[in-house]
Amino acid sequence: MISTACDGRLTSEEILASGASLSALGVTSLALLRLIDAVEDEFDVALDLGGGAPYLDSFPLLVGYMDARTP
């Protein structure tokens, strides 16, 4: 989903292998909005964007956040 949101500029392998934040990888604010939409649609959830949504800054944080909120 992250790769798609970035129009393929990052591969899944790059995202999984990197320990860097999504912003450090070059994920733009527009790509984050696309990612939010994709996650909400795919998992039928509403992401809480309050408090700066720190879980959107890295792939492991996003996975952990979603794991805690989906059955």
From TrEMBL:
Top-rank taxon, per record: Bacteria
All residue ranges annotated as the Carrier domain in the record: 15-49
Pfam family, one: PP-binding
Protein name: Carrier domain-containing protein
Organism field: Streptosporangium minutum
